[in-house]
Amino acid sequence: MNVSAPLERVNAPVFIGSPGLRIRKVAHMVTSTHETSHRIFQDHPEVLAPVFTALGLTPPAKADIEAITPDATEVKPLERRVDTVLKVVPSEGDAFLLAIEAQTSPAPDKGVNWAYYVAYLQAKFGLPVLLLTVCRNKGTAAWAVGPFECRVGTWSTLVLRPFVLGPDSVARITDESEVARHPAMATFAAIVHSESEGISGILNLLAHAMRSFDKATAKYWSELLEIGLENTPAKETWRELEKMVVSYFPGRGTVFEEAYLDGEAKGEAKGEAKGKAEGVLRVLEVRGISVPDAVRERVVGCTDLPLLDELLARAVTVERADELFVEGTGEDAGS
To answer: pTM higher than 0.85, yes or no?
Structure first.
């Protein structure tokens, strides 16, 4: 599928869409296990270009894309929520709603639920609804196109045909320059193809291409991709390719966040060791005991906190600084 609308690279985790596309969030979005599939549409609606192209529509030069409430609940305790709902208002033509669902496998009741979503949203907002389903494997994508029918005998009262973005309708990114020009589309395509053959090559290409990004951009798209890969084997492949940087998505357990938290812990331990080493040297100084450079280096270079506690206790009683290290502890102190 060709993408006709120009897409721009971003330099920070904020929306920069194709010319004329704006997004205005007016309601809280539901967090789900498919977060990235929806977030990328909410924050980067330039990814919708293939939808317009496949439907034979010209991507609007100017449009207001508004995220609205996905709540389709009428009576408790039955709760229904569409993953993401966007209101698209072209500068020319009629407005419509885009209801986005991410589907990882066929589900017997989905046809009925989707029909409910579409009917409810159309009734509530008075606008036509396009149901967009995002699938990661070909089997699910083939099932998701429907049609899902409400039928009595030979008569169909309702026929639902979702528009599906899957491995057969979303082109693979095979050129590094495409990643630089279209990072949102490249990330989304990798998510859609995460269960396809050759995904390792796709991820390697993305990782190599992202080296040309500034640090903030590389971190943002790398993390977004990692979250979008969810529990697929491709996620572990991608985690091996990622750079160790600070997380933009706290609480999501990405490799960046783990590295950041691990770094914080190591930093705290290093600071504590430095403080204890300075304490050892200060006790010796107060007692008037000379500290040779070699001993000072061993104390300052020690990162073993229990050993530093021992050295601090010995500093109170030793007669000479070199007595701090009894036989067999020298290697430990230098670690």
So the answer is: no
